[in-house]
Write a structure and sequence with these properties.
Layout lengths: L1 E3 L6 H15 L7 E4 L5 H8 L4 E5 L16 H6 L4 E4 L2 H7 L3 H13 L3 E6 L3 H5 L3 H11 L6 H4 L3 E4 L13 H19 L1 H6 L1 E5 L7 H5 L6 E4 L6 H8 L2
Parallel strand pairs: 1-2, 1-8, 2-3, 3-4, 4-5, 5-6, 6-7, 7-8
Helix pairs in contact: 1-2, 1-12, 7-9
Bound molecules: 1,3-dihydroxyacetonephosphate (13P).
Amino acid sequence: MAGNWKMYKTPADTHVFFERFKPLVEDVEHCEIVICPSFVDLHVAVKETGGTQIRIGAQNLYWGREGAVTGEVSGHMIHSAGCSHVIVGHSERRQFFNESEAEVLRKTIAALENSLTPIVCVGEKLAEREANMTEGVLVEQFVGGIGGLTSDQFAKILVAYEPVWAIGTGKTATPAIAADAHRVLRREAAIRFGVEAARNLRILYGGSVKPDNIAKLMAEEEIDGALVGGASLDPESFSKIVNF
Ligand code: 13P
């Protein structure tokens, strides 16, 4: 169960969140918990979660190790800061910062080379769904992005299916719609990396996940977890999702 805080919360807010969140999930053993705050909050988040089972991730990375690249943060830096995960290719980065499949692949590889688990996001836009293009878009994103990994690399990533029309809109994909998309991704994984790798791949669903819809989503065999935006900002609501 992963939370993506996007561009919310200061270091002080991060401290308050974990003080309240930690006791609510201290007995959790049934899943991994990852929170992805903004870069400026990572230090506080790592410190607050030391000695707990909560893992911390960044929301983006640059593929180089270091250099004259103003404003960027490398996988090496993120790992050195105590993080274990990083989100790659979120639809907001694809939409607002023109991230391409080639960049998604480069960043995914850079994350792996720095011992970070990439959470690689894919998903179709509303117009693409309405034009019956969902499957084609997912296949294109898979082939152009993570399809370029080696089998060893592929075994170490998490994939998040986030239909763009369901992000922050309150419109959750029905469990059946989400499961269908996950099946497409797993089929592509099987074609490129084999049936065993496809079976082991963990695919998270993201898009308006809330405490009151998580149980139905997780009841789908195809859905292995969730990548939660808005509802991960509040300790009570995210703990309810974790404890679905
Ligand atoms: P919401 O849960 O706010 O719809 O955001 C989903 C998301 O983009 C997580 O990465």
